[in-house]
Amino acid sequence: MKKGDHLFLVDGSGFIFRAFHALPPLTRKSDGLPIGAVSGFCNMLWKLLTDARDTSVGVTPTHFAVIFDYSSKTFRKDLYDAYKANRSEPPEDLIPQFGLIRQATRAFNLPCIETEGFEADDIIATYARQAEATGADVTIISSDKDLMQLVTPNVHMYDSMKDKQIGIPEVIEKWGVPPEKMIDLQALVGDSVDNVPGIPGIGPKTAAQLLEEFGDLETLLARAGEIKQVKRRESIIANADLARLSRRLVELRLDTPLDMPLDSLVLETQDGPKLIAFLKAMEFGSLTRRVADACDCDASVIEPAHVEVQWGAAARGPDLDAGADTSGAQAPVKAGISKAAAADIYGAATPADLAKARAEAFTSAKIDRSCYVTIRDVEALDDWMRAARETGVIAFEAEGTSIDPMQAEIAGFSLALADNTHTPSGRDIRAAYIPFGHRSGSDDLLGSGRAEHQLTSGEVFERVKPLLEDAAVLKIGHNLKYAYLLLKRHGIEIASYDDVMLMSYVLEAGKGPHSLDALSDRWLGHMPASFKEVAGSGKSGLSFDMVDIERASVYAAEKADLTLRLSMVLKPRLAADQLTRVYERLERPLVATLARMEERGITVDRQILSRLSGELAQKAAAIEDAIYETAGERFTIGSPKQLGDILFGKMGLPGGAKTKTGQWSTSAQVLEDLAAMGHDLPRKIVDWRQLTKLKSTYTDALPGYIHPQTKRVHTSYSLASTTTGRLSSVEPNLQNIPIRTTEGRKIRTAFISSVGHKLVSADYSQIELRVLAHVADIPQLRQAFADGIDIHAMTASEMFGVPVEGMPSEIRRRAKAINFGIIYGISAFGLANQLSIDRSEAGEYIKRYFERFPGIRDYMDSTKAFARDHGYVETIFGRRAYYPEIRSSNPQVRAFNERAAINAPIQGSAADIIRRAMIRMEPTLQAAKLAARMLLQVHDELIFEVEDGEIEATLPVIVATMEEAAMPAIAMRVPLKVDARAASNWDEAH
Known about the structure:
This protein is an alpha/beta fold. Among the domains are: 6-168 and 253-265, 5'-nuclease (Rossmann fold), CATH 3.40.50.1010; 366-577, 2-Layer Sandwich (Nucleotidyltransferase, domain 5), CATH 3.30.420.10; 603-703, Taq DNA Polymerase, Chain T, domain 4 (Up-down Bundle); 767-901, Orthogonal Bundle (DNA polymerase, domain 1). It is 48% helix and 10% strand. It has 38 helices and 22 strands. The strands form six sheets. A six-stranded mixed sheet has the order 3-2-1-4-5-6. It has a six-stranded mixed sheet with strand order 7-10-9-8-11-12, sandwiched between helices. A four-stranded antiparallel sheet has the order 20-21-17-22. The longest helix has 37 residues, at 891-927. The model is unreliable at 319-348, 420-427 and 443-447 (pLDDT under 50).
């Protein structure tokens, strides 16, 4: 061994103790052999070796050994017969595991070292000092205080359970003395676990003070008469010999006989087949797969090794350390997985390990629908409520009669909990359904008869309400906003919750859907029963309250069961991927905020909509006549086939392309391109489509969304439907009402305030350009925003050399189109169409733009490169947007993903800012004692309903909250600006 080498010394006995304390009694399935400690030991050792070989960690060992106690009989027993005499015999189920753990060490191709008559600590001390003498570095894998006396600048300790390095500063911080004084400190304090006597009445703090004053133990004993405290002085003088004896007991030997010389501890590579054979013999499935992947072995062709099991005296091992440090150990949360899988999970030392182990364990776990129960009596419900409080975590779902939480009734509740004490259903996760609103349909043709054998709503709400409102019990749901709003209508406000849909959204936005079915299939390898299977579809479909209770119970309980399992898989991944803050600060709090907004709704004037509908019909009819005249015949304008035949068949317009069905493509883009070329008929078709869509989607449809009781429209916000973090609204969609057309703005006039109130629209001004200036750090843009200059006029001046004062509107319009187009990765072709100019001219504009603002090109290039390397991009708050196809071999697919990846950090950061504003808004208004109510969010705009007498006081509060929303997480380089005004309708307020 030489300078530059690094020796890892593992306290194997300490690993045994930690593994034993951390895990429940685990047995091998085939014969009941106790293997809990073996499993924990193997997982911890594999984790340590994997990390040790990861050069990115910074410490890579060249030499490695695992050290064990030979037995409890050592030379210290000869010094002091009572040494460790208070320790009990090892538990019966640990005894056979001592030998198995030694065999495991050899299977890992590691030196397994023990010396009769000496403790593992003595062997570690001897090797450490020998290695240090050669100039090598040493890391002792242990948290045992007895080993801290060995710490020097070249010898460190590492607590693998806490992922904590222990050097000289850490020893001083914990004990108040440097490592070289640890022997004297322990001699004074003693050790009740090892039965080291020490001096009565002297604790660690007192010992540290005495050693600081007198230097060392012998000096202290010689000058004990100088101690001012009478009792302390007398105790030290009376027990001086015990202190000297204690020092001999705690001082580690540096001359332990070693069967294996230092140079023979070279770290060898793992023998994959040998290790897999042992792991298969132990039936450690999850670890076997990980090792096989790492060693590139086919585990299926490797036979289990023959492993000898020793019982009784033959199974040599130390006494179980009842006082061992188990602070890093965790009690297992059983969740319908095998004990072997639980062992693999709790061998995990980091969130990433735990996330991986959980995913593997739950993928292999069987889900047995026959174990679900139906709660039909109060006593059973009370038992479940007590169990939920004891467990502290419960998956919960409210089963409604409609997808609209504002109009649905509750048919029942489903719940699931991890049961660590008893499992009446035969599973570690037990799930149930509580029906109380089901109908039988047997009493009359309308189906109003109440189904038999179910609790009443009063009995259920009396017991469930306190639990759901108890912040000490975590409620877990999927798409929890639905249940939150449904229950809020019944006087229940859920406190303390998690949403697995939002966990998945934070973890994998852009990778796939986040429905319960999709998540269950992806993470648990299980496809649950669909609603269609249970309730039917179409004309024969039933509302959930009409479904037979037994069938409903299985369906609903399974949803709760899967939700709980998914939370156990996804929650540690948030920590492992460093996304917990995104989930907890941007996603989870918005559930309650949006639910309250949806409940409030907004007033819509039916008469205005009716009048607008008539106007749109007249305009559309006029355009229809013009279309028929231009085409030379009447045809069905809404038919893509007939329209395509007219445009490309009869009229022979250029650019025609057929779809897979053989029809001409008449998409909006095709028509826009033809219109940009100057063709009249495609332009008329585009105008007709816009008018008829406004009529069918808004003026005709909105009255049907007015709630029969509240007389308001209640949109529903989707939290997890976009890749970038933007919210979307459905039923009805209020975010796509066009505002650049006169007709679109007229539709907004139908959204009105209630009597005695005004609507307030608060809108971020050019937020995405401001975010771009911040992210790309563009000096010209930053300065313009700071000075309050018209950003589009400034851009035009920079690009075209035209003074800002007196700038023609056409020049400013072109600059505005480029500014916003750049954010969305616009091409020369797209810009040419938008500005009705030649493509070469548009290309020249874009080229000139990048020359004037080179930082934007740098941002785009670096963002694309990052996305290609990582598969995702990030907002300024750490939200990730995944683009899995950014490396696609298809140029069009790749280019689309590159444009989306460039835009996502900008659009996503803006979305995150308004989320932060929404989450803070209600508490801020309440603190200011203002009654304003937030009703809608439309991209960069928030709409409030404010009492007439509070408008003047409310506007500055809203503006300040929105403009400061990024703080304190992000100090924006560019100030955010919000425009807010009040009016009687939405259009006037905007």
